[in-house]
Design a protein that fits this description.
This protein is 37% helix and 10% strand. The protein is α/β, with parallel strands linked by helices. The strands form four sheets. A six-stranded mixed beta sheet has the order 2-1-3-10-4-13. Strands 8-5-9 form a three-stranded antiparallel beta sheet. The longest helix is centred in the C-terminal third of the chain and has 27 residues. The radius of gyration is 26 Å and the shape is globular. The two termini are 43 Å apart.
């Protein structure tokens, strides 16, 4: 099928070849590639091995949703992939729930496979196994034998930066999903029917936001005759991306939970966003909302299920505004009658003119490492480069299987995508499509137009995916600048223990302190110095210092 081609942009600075080869410092990554070049066909051709050559490797892999096995005689994509490349995979499978335990046992025992798939190891873990010589450097393999991935990385240099260890080596191939909704999940949803009832527009700045909430409370916004049943702003911080304080906090300063609220200033110094004067002012604003009955105190204890029950009140809508990654955080997908009343609120301009929203940058996930047991690393590289092909066929087949296997169908002529352009495929239910694909196992790449290949119904406004795509367009341009956020960093064992201890205690304290400030249990001005002192007692300065040292080391390489 003719899947939309990826658009490749030129590098504005150094070439990816220099990045991949030159970042190795004193480490000779080429020494790890000891494969026999006579086994392979010319680069860019399939199969990747010459006729009569038998190459296989073992691979550890968790079973993803709707996958019972990756075995060649059962899994349709495995058959396609092996037949295409001429390379055989011998699988060591486990459940997704057991993957970490099984992986640790395998690595500790020393009887590990040639390839490790879908472990999503941290940079610290990759660096550890790399320093021990267990995971081999992939720099030269990418540069010399993976032209598709090399092109993708030219377009996404931040992925190279993120997964380059302090020794200059890359120890995993990435999965770059590029989900717009995941990058800007912390979205606000407001009842459009209420706005229409009161003759109001979606707020664009903090003053309009306050006035809308005030009107929701005082003017019987749902029109049922009861002026006291409306809840202007509620939610559940336990819901997906449902942190109201994060959304409002971004009116005062850029901040993101994905970077642990650690920001980088213009001088490259890390600071904690929840210890700034801007955060103090955000708390004061939220306290004002609470004191005037506009911010529901139940937000701090309400579960995600309780939020859905509240927002789905059958008699009348009682929730005016909430925050979450989707309308499904406050209504069931099938309840379009209710969630269809809501519209997204683009990021709101704060008191200083700032327009910002939390950002979860797509640094990619570490999903394929090659161990020192592998005798033919070039075969692995050549094989999985298929997942990064310019037309997206490899990744699509990995996730959805092949045409006619029940996971999708070709779109009829005239079928539209999310932006009204021509669609290529129609997504079908995965429930009955067992073992037709890998379900997205291992390497893959979605570009920014990935979703545009999929068709929508004649009523796209009733599709959650369509709503999220449109909302994401309004959010992504205001996402926190990636240069002000800490990237993935590598830590040694001692530093990792420090971070875990601080994060555990910090999380518990912040939840309570934030609730106390907003609800007025603790006066913000009177309690601020004690708050900062408690952060120091928990270890925030050491926490920042550990990250600063790791960041400086990374940038010095």
């Amino acid at each position: 099928m003719n899947i939309k081609k990826f658009l490749l942009t030129a590098m504005t600075a150094i070439s990816i070849s220099a990045t991949l080869i030159g970042c190795g410092g004193d480490t000779d990554s080429a020494a790890t590639v000891t494969d026999n070049l006579d086994l392979y066909t010319p680069l860019g051709t399939y199969p990747v091995v010459k006729e009569g050559v038998d190459i296989s490797f073992t691979a550890f892999a968790p079973l993803l949703t709707n996958i019972t096995t990756y075995a060649y005689d059962t899994n349709l994509f495995t058959k396609h992939f092996q037949d295409l490349t001429g390379v055989e995979i011998e699988w060591v499978e486990c459940t997704s729930a057991d993957k970490k335990q099984k992986f640790n046992v395998m690595m500790t025992g020393g009887d590990y496979t040639d390839v490790i798939l879908e472990m999503q190891n941290t940079l610290s873990e990759l660096s550890l196994y790399g320093s021990q010589g267990i995971f081999i450097p992939l720099n030269d393999l990418i540069d010399q034998y993976m032209p598709n991935l090399k092109a993708v990385l030219e377009k996404n240099p931040h992925v190279v930066d993120a997964w380059t260890a302090t020794d200059g080596n890359i120890y995993s191939l990435p999965k770059i999903s590029g989900s717009l909704n995941n990058q800007v999940g912390n979205k606000m949803w407001m009842n459009q029917v209420w706005l229409d009832n009161l003759g109001l527009e979606v707020p664009t700045n903090i003053d309009e936001f306050y006035n809308v909430l005030k009107a929701f409370k005082e003017q019987d916004a749902n029109g049922n005759g009861d002026p006291n049943d409306e809840i202007p702003l509620t939610g559940s911080y336990k819901s997906w991306a449902g942190d109201i304080t994060l959304f409002i906090g971004n009116m005062f300063q850029p901040m993101s939970n994905s970077s642990k609220f650690l920001n980088i200033d213009e001088d490259g110094q890390i600071f904690y966003a929840k210890s700034t004067d801007e955060w103090k002012e955000a708390l004061k604003f939220m306290n004002k909302l609470h004191d005037e009955g506009l911010f529901d105190p139940m937000y701090f204890s309400q579960t995600s299920d309780q939020l859905i029950k509240l927002a789905s009140n059958p008699a009348a809508a009682v929730v005016g505004t909430t925050v979450g990654g989707s309308v499904t955080v406050f209504a069931n997908t099938t309840n379009h009658e209710r969630w269809g009343q809501y519209t997204w609120v683009p990021p709101i301009e704060g008191p200083t003119g700032l327009i910002s929203t939390a950002h979860t940058p797509d640094f990619g996930k570490a999903v394929l490492s090659i161990t020192n047991r592998c005798e033919n690393p070039i075969a692995v590289a050549r094989m999985f480069d298929y997942m990064y092909d310019a037309e997206g066929k490899g990744t699509f087949a990995n996730e959805y299987g092949l045409e006619g296997t029940g996971r999708y169908r070709l779109a009829e002529e005239g079928t539209k995508n999310y932006v009204g352009g021509p669609a290529e495929v129609i997504n079908l239910s995965a429930d009955a499509a067992k073992d037709v694909s890998w379900g997205g196992l291992g390497p893959g790449y979605h570009d920014e137009d990935w979703l545009l290949m999929f068709g929508v119904s004649d009523k796209p406004s009733e599709e959650v995916g369509y709503l999220l795509y449109r909302a994401g367009q309004d959010y992504i341009d205001h996402a926190q600048d990636i240069d002000t956020m800490i990237p993935p960093l590598a830590f040694d064992l001692d530093d990792s223990r420090i971070l875990v201890d601080v994060e555990t205690n910090l999380g518990m304290y912040l939840d309570q302190a934030t609730a106390d400030f907003i609800t007025g249990k603790v006066d913000i001005d009177e309690g601020w110095d004690d708050y900062l002192e408690q952060l120091n007692n928990i270890g925030i300065n050491q926490y920042i210092s550990v990250h600063q040292e790791a960041l400086d080391l990374k940038l010095s390489k």
